[in-house]
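Annotated sample (chain length 180).
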Amino acid sequence: MTTVLIVLGILVLYVVFVYNGLIARRNQVREAWATIDTQLKRRYDLIPNLLESVKGAAKHERETLDAVISARNAAMNASGTTARGAAENALTGALKNIFALAENYPNLKANENFLELQRELTDTENKIQATRQFYNTVVMGLNTSIEQFPTNLIAKMFGITSEKLFEIDDAERAAPKVKF
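Output written by the structure step:
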């Protein structure tokens, strides 16, 4: 009887230990996503100023500007990891077009406000990439834990599910195309 209680006690402690580990990993995933969200908010705030700088120098490039505005609005309104990832990828592509467009307007390339906004946005994009990488690392850790035996049994018992990785789509892999 004492041996059974000891084994049962060890089993309960093991389940508690594994459960707490899974919760810690899930919270890391949530924190990593919040960090991405913070950087995305910073990017959203920079985009209107960048567009205003471009409007003055490249008045007849309305299509490119509209694409950025549309992509920004879609990204801000997207919900869920998959939809948000796709919308963010589209916005990144639209922003690449703005920077490619700037190459053909010397007055825009010389505009100090535009250059500062471009630097800020580039810095923000780098931070977004780093936070996406961190997010994917912690998601991979959580998903691996959930899939391994016997942790998978405990995860299933408590309803802890895997998360989706933040992935780029084929459109973001392609070089931006600027039409004149």
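Annotation: Residues 2-57 form the longest helix (56 residues).
Annotation: The chain has seven helices and no strands.
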